[in-house]
Amino acid sequence: MQKLKVLVVATSVMMRKQISNLIAEDSIIEVIGAARNASEAVSMVQELRPDVVTIDIEVPELNSLVALSSIMSQRPTPILILSSGSKDGITATITGLQNGAVDFISKPTQLHGSDLSQIKDELIFKLKQAAQIPLRTLILNNITVSKVMTGQQAEDNSKNGGMEEFDQIVAIGCGVGGPKALEIVISSLPANFSYPLLIVQHMPPKYTKVLAERLNRFSSVRVVEAKDDQLVHGGTAYIAPGNCHMTVVQQGQVCRIKLHKKAPVNGYRPSIDVLFESITGLKSLKQHLILMTGRGNDGARGMLNAKQAGAQSTLVESQETSIVNEMPEAAGELKCVDYEVPSFLLASKIMEVTGMLDEQI
């Protein structure tokens, strides 16, 4: 059996050694090189042609975001980010995910002794998963011009959100690969988009807040991390906080967000199924449900129930752009999907199913 080849990128000698030793414990993975800075990383990817690259992203000296962007433009390769969970590390991680990295791992707070061994199983699992991502999918996700990558900010900076009264609502669920997919979709919606978007992204606390801030910066619609009891407005995207389920309830003519920390569903909190089930209860609204890239089957059952209850439309991201296609595939197996669309066409499809495309013409 041919071994999975991994390039380790980290400024610290200790970090390179620890990561390499952990990976070497698996019989089918081989560390073929270790780079200490961005230029080394880029040249070693070209020379050694690894199957996966791990990058310790938040170290300033590494200039890891430059390395990541260069690798994805010169020789697209699955990249797995290692993040400390510090404020700077989280920001760099979200930026890296939006610029082409496929997944990330939060390192333990302390990096001494055997602490890093806590992530061994997750590291090996995610390396093997990353190696299975087709090259075509990586390329399709990165030929899309990214406002985050180019530094372009949205023209409309007022973004106060729309009216509290609306007759349609959009719910989106995503997991691995979601930050990039969401950036492609949300940043493509026009400033006059009239309806609320409720989003569950499988991600830990703090990361969801930074994700919302960055999407807001590069999108024409308003993007916020959701708060408990918050009024829902049209033209605003609400991202469920990490470690909190998000639901929506209707009170008279308005809708409010409710957050809670009941047990994980399908292994996740926030869970897409929890959001979708609550959306299904909003009988006076036309409902549009979307499942994008992600691992597992979270959201599939909720989409089926919504479809059976009369949801206006159900959409999934197509396999050609899904970094991990398990969630869209699970919904497809339940035969509850109206449309299968690549990420770069999802925004226009949302405009179409909500009727806003006709209004633009």
Blueprint (SSEs and pairs):
Layout: E1 4-9, H1 13-24, E2 29-35, H2 38-48, E3 52-56, H3 64-74, E4 79-83, H4 87-98, E5 103-106, H5 120-131, H6 135-143, H7 147-150, E6 168-174, H8 178-186, E7 197-201, H9 207-217, E8 222-225, E9 236-239, E10 245-251, E11 254-260, H10 272-280, E12 286-291, H11 300-308, E13 313-317, H12 326-333, E14 339-341, H13 343-353, H14 356-360
Parallel strand pairs: 1-2, 1-3, 3-4, 4-5, 6-7, 6-12, 7-9, 8-9, 12-13, 13-14
Antiparallel strand pairs: 10-11
Task: Give a structural overview.
- The chain has helices at residues 13-24, 38-48, 64-74, 87-98, 120-131, 135-143, 147-150, 178-186, 207-217, 272-280, 300-308, 326-333, 343-353, 356-360; strands at 4-9, 29-35, 52-56, 79-83, 103-106, 168-174, 197-201, 222-225, 236-239, 245-251, 254-260, 286-291, 313-317, 339-341.
- With 361 residues, the protein is of the alpha/beta class.
- The strands form three sheets. It has a seven-stranded parallel β-sheet with strand order 8-9-7-6-12-13-14, sandwiched between helices.
- Strand 10 (245-251) and strand 11 form a beta hairpin.
- The longest helix has 12 residues, at 13-24.
- It is elongated, with a radius of gyration of 20 Å.
